[in-house]
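name: query_chain
kind: protein
chains: 1
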Amino acid sequence: MFAISPSAMRGQLGKVAALFAGSIRPLTPNNRPSGIFKTPVEQAVWIGRNGLEGDAQADLRVHGGPEKALHQYPAGHYSVLAQAFPDVRSELFPGALGENLSVSGWDESTVCIGDIFQLGDAVIQVSQPRTPCWKIDSRFGVEGMTQHIHQNDLTGWYFRVLSEGLVAPGGEFCLIERDPRKTSVKQLLSLWRAHRPSPEALESIAAISTLSPNWVKKMNDRAQQLRHLP
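structure:
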């Protein structure tokens, strides 16, 4: 099921730069609970249906659970954020935005909805983009970072876990299967941010069987709203 040809895999192999997990901690200024604070995982860890063993999320409505079991954030985005928010440059490094996985060479333009990756002994699948929230601004004590991330498609994405297994820091991370529709995370985000996107385009992406149910509903609901506009 998960095999692809050697030629398709060429250039798709990579090493896991880092894995991150964390407990729930209070987030200033209102001390609301958050799982955004992650620290590096230094030994092999089990990836289950709900994510890395030892990792916690405070609000399962928006983070965590089977459709958002793992969050990957492109390592290269941190230098982009550091240029936009130089006052917190020293705080912008892999793991700081609450991601579980940091691998170089992948971003929203090269990762597609439904992509299946081998991560150590586990098999994981891209399910949806991350939706940045107010906690990012609170985490760094700045205004506008969440909006900047949203407007520039610097969100990262989530995985569901197809096959559980062990993964160690520095283990292999590679693409093993791609949905033939090849809809990148960036294409989805760009369409979603558009002022009045085509309802047909929204419904086309909603029809991708590997897209998370939450995003399927969002796309279809917006398409219906647009059809009733004058």
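note: Helices lie at 6-9, 77-84, 135-140, 145-151, 185-193, 199-206, 213-227.
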